[in-house]
Structure formats: C-alpha cells, structure tokens
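During the no-cost extension, the postdoctoral fellow (Dr. R.K.) reprocessed legacy sequence entries with the updated structure-token encoder. One reprocessed record is reproduced below for audit purposes.
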Amino acid sequence: MKYFVYAIQSEKDDRIYIGLSKSPSTRLKDHNLGRVFSTKGYRPWKMVYIEEAGDRVAARKREKYLKSGTGKEQLKFIINKPL
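Re-encoded structure tokens follow.
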C-alpha cells in the first residue's frame, strides 16, 4: 500500500507539522477536528506539501529527514518557492 509524507501549516501561527499517512486528506481532517493531540492547539491547518513515498518504511525515513534541520530547511525552500 502507498504511503505519503505530508506537511501542514498552521493558519494560526505558521508552524509546520510533518507526518505520514495512507490518506493525507483524511489525516488533514483529523488534524483540523482536533483528533491529533500534538496539533490540536494550533488549528486550523492547511496542506502545503505531499510526497508519495512508496511503503511505510520509506515514508518514515523521508519523514525523519524532513524533520531534521537540513530537511526542514529544504522543505521551507520548496514551500516558499515562487511559482
């Protein structure tokens, strides 16, 4: 089954949360309904990045990278890159 790595951004204070899921759109709803403890206080959230990662192991590895200092900087560059 395919997994995705996603990044959401709080519309309240612009913080970024990175996670993995089989269904990023359903997971975004969970975040916005307050079902995720770590993001509950920073609602509402908007999806800013989605990447297909294949299986769960690959998704977890990519998620850990994007949460690292270098990965987070790369993600911020991708998100803020002008079209």
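The mean pLDDT is 96. Helices lie at 24-32, 56-67, 69-80. The remaining legacy entries will be reprocessed before the final report is submitted.
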